[in-house]
Design brief:
single chain, about 425 residues, alpha+beta, Jelly Rolls, 2 domains, 9-stranded mixed β-sheet, 13 helices, about 35% helix, globular, binds 2-oxoglutaric acid, binds fe (ii) ion
Length: about 425
């Protein structure tokens, strides 16, 4: 990030005055297509898409050099089953059944990758049908679980998506990540959803094509049924039933995007979407959070806690540890609670404070060892301070036992604010 972009971005958040970044109104009619890598900078992405929270598609030129595009794909543009088998045959992968609905997703099972490939071949031979149903390999943590040693050759993280705190945090803990491979025959699809923690995602078709249906944040409200639930399939004829979907007349049409082989799509924060594989498709998808959607994540976590509290409200007066139990339930339903969110902020903040401390001593310039430039670190500290101030002021965070936290949340907030003031000069 350069100084000018940092100033632009800081002004953007000051202008929002504490409102959660979104994108008001119905979906745009079309998506912006970015043709040439040379003519599109990180600053262009921040100003044009990340801050306004708008989707875009990058041409296949952006992923031209990726090893996966060379090795995982035949000259006819199909998945190279033999290569993939030889490389990953023994790896156990998660597989969803697209034909079976369980609440608003599909049941998953695990199987060796070689069994999935056998299924896929049979499915093609059967004219894209199988008695086993329509199986979709989803959320395969290839980087985390891989037995292979050439990971860096599969893809190169595009600079636009390099400020990725979720994966930075999990890499420090060394237990998980949000880097996935999806693979499935034509006809596999992902039901209607918004991404985990209201993260951004990016997705590249290594081969094949996808159709995306997008609804900007807030537009999904008109799609709720009479019980307040979101649809599983936004294309279902059920949605025409106004007794079942009383607000459907207020809904707007989705933004439809066709993503071709090699192209990369940016999915903004809180945009609901439904996705279809139009051909036999393999994609690499990452979820990511950074200073630009941290407030969206925090807003989402507050809503999740509220939903838990509502669900178990009848025990509030009879259960001595009710607030603590709500946090425990939240952790198991959402994957994170307020304590862990603080830990996440702390890990990300401490690295930036260190970079800025060095920078403020006069040691300016990029810090290759920490992989962060000073302007980016200064911007990040501002966003962290804003969100942490809201966390510290939250009544339910004040109920969390923070006695063993180091540093104490107020202390970390003070450090962030002091550093932010000092970093004005940078
Ligand atoms: O490709 C898919 O099936 C779903 C991808 C998705 O939902 C995402 O990248 O956010
Ligand atoms: Fe998604």
């Amino acid at each position: 990030m350069d100084r000018e972009t940092r100033t632009f971005a800081e002004r953007h958040y000051r202008g929002l005055g504490g409102q959660v970044p979104g994108c008001d109104g119905p979906a745009p009619r079309s998506v912006t297509f970015i043709q040439a890598p040379d003519a599109f900078s990180y600053a262009d992405f921040v100003k044009g898409f990340l801050l306004p929270n708008l989707p875009c598609v990058f041409s296949s030129a952006f992923t031209e050099g990726w090893g996966s595009r060379r090795r995982w794909v035949t000259s006819a543009g199909k998945p190279d089953f033999e290569y993939l088998l030889q490389k990953y045959g023994d790896v156990v992968v998660p597989v969803a059944n697209c034909g079976v609905r369980e609440y608003n997703s599909n049941p998953k099972e695990s199987m060796p990758f070689r069994d999935y490939i056998s299924y896929w071949k049979e499915y093609i031979q059967g004219g894209y049908s199988s008695p086993r149903g329509c199986l979709y390999l989803k959320d395969w943590h290839l980087c985390r679980d891989s037995l292979v040693d050439d990971l860096e050759d599969i893809f190169t993280l595009p600079v636009y998506f390099s400020s990725d705190w979720l994966n930075e945090f999990w890499d420090v803990l060394n237990v998980d990540d949000y880097r996935f491979v999806y693979a499935g025959p034509r006809g596999t699809w992902s039901p209607f959803h918004a991404d985990i923690f209201r993260s951004f995602s990016w997705s590249v078709n290594i081969c094949g094509r996808k159709k995306w249906l997008f609804f900007p944040p807030g537009q999904e409200e008109a799609l709720r049924d009479c019980h307040g639930n979101l649809p599983y399939d936004v294309t279902s004829a059920e949605l025409l039933d106004t007794r079942l979907y009383p607000r459907i007349q207020h809904s707007s049409l989705p933004l439809e995007v066709i993503q071709e082989a090699g192209e990369m799509i940016f999915v903004p924060s809180g945009w609901h979407h439904q996705v279809y594989n139009l051909d036999d498709t393999i994609s690499i998808n990452h979820n990511w959070v950074n200073g630009c959607n941290l407030a969206n994540m925090w807003h989402f976590l507050q809503q999740e806690l509220q939903a838990v509290q509502h669900e178990v409200r009848e025990w509030k007066n009879s259960m001595p540890d009710w607030h603590h139990h709500c946090q425990v339930i939240m952790k198991s339903c959402t994957g994170i609670n307020f304590e862990e969110f603080y830990h996440f902020l702390k890990v990300i903040a401490e690295k930036r404070l260190l970079v800025l401390k060095q920078g403020l001593k006069g040691d300016t310039g990029d810090k290759p060892g920490l992989g962060l430039n000073l302007q980016q670190a200064a911007f990040d500290v501002g966003r962290l301070a804003d969100v942490l101030a809201s966390v510290v002021a939250h009544i339910d965070f004040q109920r969390v036992d923070t006695s063993a936290f180091s540093p104490q949340p107020e202390e970390l907030l003070q450090q962030l604010e002091d550093t932010m003031a000092a970093a004005e000069a940078l």
